[in-house]
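Hello Y.,

Per our agreement to keep a running log of every chain we model this quarter, I'm adding this entry. I've kept the format consistent with earlier entries: sequence first, then predicted structure.
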Amino acid sequence: MSQYSPPTPGNESTAGVEEFGYKQAMKRGTGRFASFAVAFAFVSIATGIFTTYGSVLNSSGPAGIWTWPIVIVGQLAVAFIFGSLAARIPVTGYSYQWMSRLANPVLGWIIGWISFTFLAIVVVAVDYTIASTVLPVLLQYEGTALNAWVITGVVILFQAVLVAFSTKWTERVNNFAVTAELIGMVALVLLLLGVGFVAKEVNFANLFSTGAVPADGYLSFGTLTSAGPWMLGFLLGAFTIVGFESAANLAEETKDPARVVPRAMWQAVLASGVLGFLFLVAVTLLAGDPVELAKSATPIADVITRVLGPVVGTALLVLVVIAIFACGMVILMTGVRLVWAMSRDERFPGWQAWRKISPRFGTPLNATVFMLVIGELILAIFSTRTDALFGLFAAATLLPAIIYTGTVVMYVVKRKALPPSRGFDLGRWEIPVIVVAMVWLVFELLLFRDASFVDPWTYVLIMLVLGAAYLVYLLVTRGGAKGLAMPDMHSIDAELNADAAKGADAAKGADAATDAAARSTGAVNDTDGALGR
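Predicted structure for the entry above:
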């Protein structure tokens, strides 16, 4: 039975999923901090910076960190647009729902499939980092393809168990991890700068050094098949500051989602951006010889261990493990919700099983098992190819850029026809935000023309071909695009007004009937009086 109640005047943000043709299937228990924590954990600056800082040192040198603020501005603009959509259509499925309802269901299905591809790939790529990069250093053992495969598989299994059996405990674990990451990163920045200045190890020249990268042509945009050194530095932020939209994928489990979700998204981007940049500056100031540091597989840990000692260095690695686990867990949960949302609309392969909500746990249990199997399958396919697994990171950077671009373009085209906002609106800032978002996304997509992204493009194309085959099947069996129509979006207020109007008409009809009866009675009485006379 639905727990939905119609919105009251002045509290329109409480509109439920019934307005979008659904019934409330999961409990609304996600509050403001939990929603923010979901978005922040997916972004996970500890995970992103620890994973990609070494690559940036080799491709762009220490000066590559200055691309980070530009990425933040661009992604913040994207988050504002996503927030504007989430405030109008607060339904699980985010871009899939928005595109399907505002553009057309075929485009919506395509963006939904791309989102699924992204989530399935990135959960493996993120969790593999624990087994291949962090744990061998933390526990002092030799990492191999075999033990990395086994450990990653176990990590994904633990995450799936949490997501499957309890949303409340998943959020509790995530809230703890995000709190630890926030406190830990702030403490690290303060300790690094404090100790660095006292020990006189700070080197401001590092902030503008290109390291081993030649200074000539550093700011070049590159060629048709290669991006310049400066442009490749953007991958640091582009890989890290993604996934903030995960808060929108829990909209149907969030209290007052039209207000809470948009705020959670842009706050996660802003907090990650500011804190992440301060951390990057601190590490770079204390990098010592950046050319030598670039040769390390764990440059962040090396700097912290050298400056703050092995105890703090070990604490950092523990913090990174916690952050990566939470990041992978939130990614898995987001993927589960997307599969469930598309299956609810009967348009995901095997939807009959994945659309069910467990009556015991109140979670999409079957969809969680499906995402677990898909993750383990992807891991098994690439388990013996370490280079290929790291290539998945590049694919995990390319796919959200495509999703964001498609969604923003749809917003630009349909913004005049959007339903009313219930909690967040761009107002007079809409045009500047759109311009910033579009310029940034076009620039970001240009990064992926580099020849080093051949493998990621290949992975993406393979998944798109598989998706296209199923889409054709859907169109053939459903009688074309009309068979993919979404449940009706309707206004509860309009229905209440219509009911009130019907009631008023019925009342008028009753009054008219009463008047007619009265007139008839009066006529009879007059006749009787005339006969009596």
